[in-house]
Design a protein that fits this description.
This protein is of the alpha/beta class. It contains 11 helices and 10 strands. Helix 3 packs across helix 4 and helix 4 packs across helix 5.
Length: 266
C-alpha cells in the first residue's frame, strides 16, 4: 500500500510568517481531497510532498523513507503532479512527444514510453490528437494532455491540482473515471481543489486546511456535515448538499443518487 506520512511539518517563505504550522497527516490509499480557501497552504503542502521546496521543520516519509535526502528527479518516479495550469507543464511540439517526455525522463526506454503514452492518451480520450501541436488545442484539451503526461509515468502516487478547471461535464466525467481507475490500480490519488461538487462525488476522504493548519480530516460526508467548521474555513457545501439541507432531509445528500434515495425515503 502506498503511504505518505507527514510529521510536524512547518514551512515559511519569509521569517516569522508560517504558511504551514505543525502539520501531521498520514495519507493512505483512500482518494483524498485537500480543500481550503486561497492562502490556506494547499499548494505549499503539495510542493513539499513533491520535494519542490523544503520544510523549515518536520519530515515527510513515502513508504517509510524520508524524502529529505531525495532529489526532485528521484521523487518524480514516485509522485506525479498534474499542474493547475497545463501551460506551465506543456512544452513539446506534438501531443505524443509531450506525453512521452515524462516516461523517458525517468529512464523508461523509447518503445515502452511510446506505448505508455498511447495508453494514457486513450485513457483521457485524446488519442486522435497525438500528432497535433498542444497549443492548437483548447485549454480543456491541454488539461487532459497534462493529465495523460503524468499517467504515462505510472507513478504510485498522483496529485491533481484543480483538475476540473476549464472542464465541461463530459471531461469532468472522464476525470472521475480516471480517478476511479487509478484507485482500482492501487495508486494513491490526492487533489487540491475548490470544486466541492467534484470532491463530494469522487473522494473518500477530505482534509480542510485553514490558516496553515488542519481544521478537519475525516470521511468526506462527515466533513460536509460539519457546517460550522466549514464556515470557519470560508467553504461552501456542494450544491446537492445545500439543497438537501434546505429541504431538511433526514440525511445530508452529497450526490444526485444519494439525494434521490433520501428524497424517496423522506
Amino acid at each position: 500500500m502506498n503511504k505518505i506520512k507527514v510529521e510536524n511539518l512547518s514551512f515559511s517563505y519569509t521569517p516569522n510568517d508560517l504558511v504551514l504550522s505543525n502539520i501531521n497527516i498520514t495519507f493512505d490509499n483512500r482518494t483524498t481531497a485537500i480543500i481550503g480557501q486561497n492562502g490556506a497552504g494547499k499548494t505549499t503542502l503539495v510542493k513539499l510532498l513533491k520535494g519542490l521546496i523544503k520544510p523549515i521543520s518536520g519530515d515527510i516519509q513515502i513508504n517509510g523513507t524520508s524524502i529529505s535526502s531525495q532529489s526532485v528527479a528521484s521523487l518524480a518516479k514516485q509522485i506525479g503532479l498534474v499542474f493547475q495550469n497545463p501551460d506551465d507543464q506543456i512544452f513539446k511540439q506534438t501531443v505524443l512527444d509531450e506525453v512521452m517526455f515524462g516516461p523517458l525522463n525517468i529512464g523508461i526506454n523509447e518503445v515502452e514510453a511510446k506505448n505508455a503514452a498511447i495508453e494514457a492518451l486513450s485513457l483521457v480520450g485524446m488519442s486522435k490528437h497525438e500528432n497535433s501541436n498542444p497549443y492548437d488545442l483548447g485549454l480543456s484539451e491541454r488539461k487532459l494532455i497534462a493529465i495523460a503526461s503524468i499517467l504515462s509515468m505510472n507513478t504510485p502516487i498522483i496529485i491533481f491540482d484543480e483538475p476540473t478547471i476549464a472542464q465541461d461535464f463530459i471531461s469532468k466525467e472522464k476525470i472521475k473515471n480516471i480517478i476511479r481507475y487509478l484507485q482500482f490500480q492501487g495508486k494513491l490519488v490526492l487533489t487540491i481543489i475548490h470544486d466541492m461538487d467534484f470532491v463530494a462525488e469522487c473522494f473518500e476522504r477530505t482534509i480542510v486546511l485553514c490558516k496553515g493548519s488542519v481544521l478537519i480530516d475525516d470521511e468526506t460526508k462527515k466533513v460536509f456535515q460539519n457546517v460550522d467548521l466549514l464556515k470557519e474555513a470560508h467553504l461552501e457545501l456542494p450544491h446537492v448538499a445545500r439543497l438537501s439541507k434546505e429541504l431538511a432531509l433526514k440525511n445530508l445528500s452529497l450526490t444526485i443518487d444519494d439525494f434521490i434515495t433520501d428524497w424517496f425515503n423522506y
